[in-house]
Amino acid sequence: MVTGGRITSGICGAPWDITGGIVGEQIRLDAKRTGQGSCADTITIVGEFRNPSSYQGTYGFDGASSSFKHTTKYQ
């Protein structure tokens, strides 16, 4: 279970404060925008684990979760 965190760059409206989610075989992150500009107020990121150390899926804004494809690597 994810209870907090921050996305600091790479997505319009950054930084984003993570408000909840899960990380395991699947990922789901919900976040609210704290950056400046006219980007959406919330984001949802979903995906499935891939080797090496990444998640592949989609993300969307303001309630959507399938607007854009992503591959997110982590270290």
Q: What profile does the largest beta sheet have?
A: 6 strands, antiparallel
Tell me the strand order in the biggest sheet. 1-2-3-4-5-6
SSE succession: EEEEEE
Please state roughly what percent of the residues sit in beta strands, choosing from under 5%, 5-15%, 15-25%, 25-35%, 35-45% or over 45%.
Answer: over 45%
- The total count of helices amounts to 0
| Dominant shape | globular
**SS-based structural class?**
mainly beta
Mean pLDDT: 93
Distance between the termini: 18 Å
Return residue spans where pLDDT drops below 50 for at least 5 consecutive residues. none
From the alpha-carbon coordinates, what is the Rg to the nearest angstrom?
Answer: 12 Å
Task: Describe the structure using short key phrases.
75 residues; mainly beta; 6 strands; globular; 0% helix; 6-stranded antiparallel β-sheet
Quick recap:
By secondary structure, this protein is mainly beta. It has strands at residues 6-7, 16-23, 26-33, 42-50, 54-61, 68-73.
Overview of the molecule:
This protein is mainly beta. 0% of the residues lie in helices and 55% in strands. A hairpin with an 8-residue loop joins β1 and β2.
Summarize the topology:
Elements: E1 6-7, E2 16-23, E3 26-33, E4 42-50, E5 54-61, E6 68-73
Antiparallel strand pairs: 1-2, 2-3, 3-4, 4-5, 5-6
